[in-house]
Each structure stands twice: as structure tokens, then as C-alpha cells.
Amino acid sequence: MTGPRPFNPLHKRNLAASIAEALLESEPVPLGTVPAFSGSGVYAIYYTGEHPAYAALADANRDGKWWAPIYVGKAIPQGGRKGAEVDDDDAELPKGRALAARLKEHADSIRAAKASLSIDDFHCRFLVVDEIWIPLGENLLISRFMPVWNKVVDGFGNHDPGKGRYQGLAPRWDVLHPGRGWALKCQPRPEVPATIESEVAAYLRGRAFEQPARLFR
After folding, report:
1. Do the Cβ atoms of 93 and 85 come closer than 8 Å?
2. How do residues 76-110 score in pLDDT, each as one tens digit?
3. In angstroms, rounded to a whole number, what is the distance separating the alpha carbons of residues 17 and 140?
4. What's the DSSP call for residue 47?
5. Residue 122, helix vs strand vs coil
6. Which of 36, 42, 135, 156 gives the lowest tally of CB atoms within 10 Å of its CB?
7. What phi, psi does 94 have (nearest 5°)?
8. What is the C-alpha separation between 38 and 24, in angstroms, rounded?
């Protein structure tokens, strides 16, 4: 006779869900005003503006709903773990400012694309997480929300490849939202903005956005 499978709180699926739920319990803050803070972790960025390609997302995020991130990402400190520091409670203290720096980088990208985007239309949630659990949380958030800037309009999180490495194509994100100086040095893509906008509309069409808390039950 078989019975219900016992719940394992330490299964990686459940650990990932705990990270995702903790992130979603935090209050969104304007992306352009995130203060400096220590730690690495995961984050979700939300859009509430008037760009026609993202109308469905904006509707899902207005009025305090915050149901549909446009992008999900992670920030891991450069060089990885180099030994723990502990406080009086023997809890590891966050080191570096990888998460805050990553969010500032994203804010700068959006400001550079001022012809099509406004930083005032973006909010974010972020969560400082122990380094070893960060990929688990990010992977679950992306798989559940399928954010359009992760899945269709790729390249938002790209870095400047550096001098002598501009032979590659510019990211699709920079075709739809031009303005980043380094992307202008890359090779032009065959797509035009209208083509990518059509792909975004097709991707979002018919999607049923729901309260995020239900996604992890």
C-alpha cells in the first residue's frame, strides 16, 4: 500500500519556494531610489508604464497588485565566498554590495533608454540570500513567472563586453530600447523594434496573471 509522499522541507524545490515567497512578501520600492546596502541575493523588477508592448504587464502590476515581474535576476559577489563573518548570534553577515550594485546597473540601463522607458515606471523587490541558495531562488522565480525580459527581449542584464569585443550582435533589448552607449558599438541585428514588439505582444497575449502567492502552493 502506498500513502502520501512525506513532505521534505529541505528538498531543493521547497527551499527554492521559501526564497521566492520571502521575496514576494517584501514591499516593492522604486528602482531608481534603491539605497546602498550590503549583501547578494535575488530580485524582481516590475513595470507600470505606458509602453504598448507591455500593457498587460502594467495592468497586472498597478493598484498594488505586483503580479507580473518584467525581469528576474540574481547578484552573486565577485570571487564567491571567502569565509564567513559572524555576529553575536552566530549568523553570517552579508558581505559586499553585489545586489545593490546590480539594481543600480539596471536603473542606469533604463535611464539610458529614456526615449522609450522611464525609470519612474519601474519598481523592484529584492532579498538578501546566502550565496549558495541564490541560484535556486532565481531559477524558480523565472520558471514560474516567465518574465518577458528573461524569455523574449533578452539582453537587459548584459554587461559592456569591453574594447575589442564589439563584433557580436547588439542585444535584442537594445534594439527595442536603444540608448546604452556600449550596445551602439555592437553589430546591428536583423530585427527591427516593430518585429520584437510583435513577439512580445504574442508572448503576453492570453496569459492569465494571478496573485503570486498562489504560484508556490
Report:
1. yes
2. 987 655 444 444 444 566 778 999 999 999 999 99
3. 7
4. E
5. strand
6. 36
7. -65, 145
8. 20
